[in-house]
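Quick note —
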Amino acid sequence: MLILGIESSCDETAASVVRDCREICSSVVSTQIEEHKKYGGVVPEIASRRHCENILGVVRAALGEAEVTLADIDAVAVTYAPGLIGALLVGVNFAKGLTLAAGKPLVPVHHIAGHIATNYLSHPELEPPYLCLVASGGHSHIIEVLSYTKFRVVGRTRDDAAGECFDKCARAMGFPYPGGVHIDRAAQTGDPSRFRLPHPAVSGSEFDFSFSGLKTNVINLIHHAEQKGESLDMNDLAASIQQTISATLTEKTMLAAEALGYKKIALAGGVSANTGVRAVMSEACAKRGFEFFMPEKSLCGDNGAMIACQGSYNFLAGITADESLNAIATLSMEEI
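Predicted structure written out below.
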């Protein structure tokens, strides 16, 4: 079985061909980071225009790299939610046109489910059920993966996502967009105990996250130092931020795992590439005797392979769509 996956939910135009759910035959990603860097973040209108310009070439390249034609493809999977609405519409409408012209089934894929599926590509032995922490620029969720196509959200962010907190703190520190990777690099030589930062909690929701208070604390810390003419060691601050976010994500996930009886834990999403998060999660799972899975770093960011992989399982489960499929900017995992 060959599935073509298309991803365009934010600022990467990506396509991939995956065979039999778990073998990546090709993966092509056209990134817009350099263009958005000058604005300090993703500009939705620019992102949508670049998707329009790039998507045909990216899909052709993915088919070519896999050495297959559209006739060989069994179905086309596409991200339809959540994400930037204009960006999503480009991918959805391209996929609809492609399947209509080629007479192929159209498979809708939820973006977060796609991130979870990266672990199947990195770990052939992984099977549901398990608990997965999905952390990225727009999402921070603790999710029960009940089957390949059924999920239950047990924890989520109430405000900023973990990746968003990384980026906003980095911007205040003077790092260019995307800031998370620069904090990760600076943290390698910093002292994580140098600054005492808050570990946010949500009253009455023990598995939920809140990172806006941490972000505000860091911004205020920097502004106060500037007003006093003092200098801060940015490596120490980066290490403190990374340690706090990593510990918060891990503590909530371990709490949920113990409460729900899971001993198999996975990590996914763009923030799963962060060395601090990977190390703290791995150590916490090892300490408790939990199995721990995380994707290869090359699969942590948005890519077509994750959509093709999840699309494969959706297709096997009979989850397809017709020409009425529309893009949705905000959609809970429990609504799919």
